[in-house]
Amino acid sequence: MKNRNSKFAMLFILALSFMSFTVLKDKTVKIKESSITWKGYKVGGEHTGTIDLKSGSLIFNGSKLTGGNFVIDMTSINTTDLSGDYKGKLDGHLKSNDFFGVEEFPTATLNITSATGKAGVYNVKADITIKGITEAIDFVMNVNDDTASANLKIDRTKHNITYQSPSLLETLKDKAIYDDFDLNVTLKF
């Protein structure tokens, strides 16, 4: 019995040592600077703009990306291809309930659930939450030195943003706003 207890104690100590070693290998780095640009498409054109990152971090195991968490400030959505009254109207409309509903949903989040790859190029799986609705997405992230970049394509209808969606209303014709929009992200850590 004594020998059995000794083996159990040894296994327990080894398990604790392994868990401690694993935790020490993971390193979380905070995002110091970011640039997020968006592009939305409509019949006959597009609009572009910026949005601010409220907070964010990437998680590494050694030099390998393993995770990350980000909070986007939806109240900062800004149109850059318009000016004057047109800019003000579009900015206001994007913040309204027709689109991102920033009064009720002032932030969106993205949580990296896995990252696989090598040489600084990762296939990332993540959960993105916009307007309280979470959707799994995949994208490629490049990590070089202290910079990470990614281009994401997001289907707004999966987050209950259906204003003038051609997939829901066939009769829109020249007023349609396409479902997918792009986010181009650069992060410095």
Automatic annotation (TrEMBL):
InterPro entries: Lipid/polyisoprenoid-bd_YceI, TTHA0802/YceI-like_sf. Gene3D superfamilies: Lipid/polyisoprenoid-binding, YceI-like. This is Polyisoprenoid-binding protein YceI. It comes from Winogradskyella sediminis. Residues 1-25 form the signal peptide. It comes from the Bacteria. SUPFAM superfamilies: YceI-like (SSF101874). Transmembrane segments: none annotated. Pfam families: YceI. Residues 26-188 form the Lipid/polyisoprenoid-binding YceI-like domain. Keywords: Signal.
